Amino acid sequence: MMSFLRSVATIPLAGSAIPTEFSLSSSSSTKSQTFPFPSSSRSSPRLRASAPMACVPQVPAAAVSEFKGPNVFGVVRFVQISMENVRIEASFGGLSPGKHSWCINEYGDLTKGAASTGNIYNPLQDDQAATQLPGDLGTLEADQNGEALYTVKKENMKVTDLIGRAIVVYETEDKSVHGITAAVVARSGEVGESCRKLCSCDGTTIWEATVY
Fold first, then answer.
1. I need a surface site. Which of 54, 150, 173, 184 has the fewest CB within 10 A?
2. Exposure string (b/e) for 47-85, b if CB count within 10 Å is 16 or more?
3. Which SUPFAM superfamilies match (predicted)?
4. According to DSSP H, which parts of 2-103 are helical?
């Protein structure tokens, strides 16, 4: 019996290396009997999803550019609504009444204001003959109070490629002179989280545009 107890005491506890067999000997016989453990090569059952996961609203990639004066104030928001499409929404105040060109420029260098932001952003370098470069945002039209709203969907653009560049606003539609103000495009987390969510399945509009 003591021999049997010693044999049992040598069986490893959970978490230790598991042998493939153990021996049991009795006091009446010197011959050991071998009892193999179940094969460890059998794989345990895998859990499978019983149904597809429900659609969960998600906050897409977003960026923001803020104009803090002293003359022109505004905010521009960029949201990735698909792999190659970006929704741009902007509101401005402090502009002179009338039309103002504006664009995304190559660099976020504001050491000399708009003059140090480079040329209009153009990821399509092989298509210089395009009628409008991707970074050209068209025209802002300010009312008599100097306020302007803008919403557009831009194709062939990614929010991640815009971060660190600059938004430039011009005094008129003429881009031959430097812009009157500029602001850097920065990554946005709080803007997207504080507004309505964009569902990945239906493309709901994210923001209601309001004057800044």
1. 54
2. eeeeeeeeeeeebbbbbbbbbeeeebbbbbbbbbbeeee
3. Cu,Zn superoxide dismutase-like (SSF49329)
4. 2-9
Strands 136-142 and 62-68 come out as unpaired
pLDDT in tens, 170-185: 999 999 999 999 999 9
Rounded CA separation 197/59 (Å): 6
In a domain, 17, yes or no: yes
124-164: pLDDT as tens digits:
765 555 567 889 999 999 999 999 999 999 988 999 999 99
Q: Is residue 47 part of a domain?
A: no
Signed CA dihedral, 96, 98, 101, 102: sign only: positive
Residue 53 tokens read as: 């996961």
User: Taking a C-beta distance cutoff of 8 angstroms, is the pair 138, 152 a contact?
Assistant: yes
Domain CATH number, residue 88: 2.60.40.200
The model's pTM is 0.62
Whether 142 and 100 have beta carbons less than 8 Å apart is answered as yes
Domain hosting residue 14, numbered range: 2-36
